[in-house]
Amino acid sequence: MKLYSNILALIxxxxxISCQTATERAYTxxxxxxxxxxxxxxxxxxxxxxxxxxxxxxxMETSGDIEMKQSVIDAWDFQCDxxxxxxxxxxxxxxxxxxxxxNEAGAGKVVIYDIITGDATGYGQGNEE
Length: 129
What we know:
By secondary structure, the protein is of the alpha+beta class. It has three helices and four strands; from the N terminus they run αααββββ.
C-alpha cells in the first residue's frame, strides 16, 4: 500500500509539473513570436538603412518595418543587444523579453533569445536555472 501511495504521489507531481510547463510555454509564446519578428524586422531595417535601429522596436515601428500589438507591448519589455557583424554579414547578440505587471505570468519572467544559435532560454523554456 505504501508503494502505491508513493507511485500515486509521483504521478500527481509529474502531472502538476507538466501542467505548469505547458502554462509557462503558453505565456511565453507571444514573446517568442515577437522576438523572432524583431530579429526579422531588424534584418530588413539593416538592409534598407545600412545600420540596425538604435532601439529595440520604436524606430522600426516608425519606419513601418514592424507592427506590434499594444497587448504585447504592455505584457513584455523588450531589450535588443545586437550588432551587425560586417565581416560575417550577420546580426549577432541577444533579444530579451521581460514580463511586466500586465502579464498573466507575473512580472519579472525573462526569456533570452540568442540570435546566432536561435535558442531561447529562461522562463517557459524548460531550461531555467
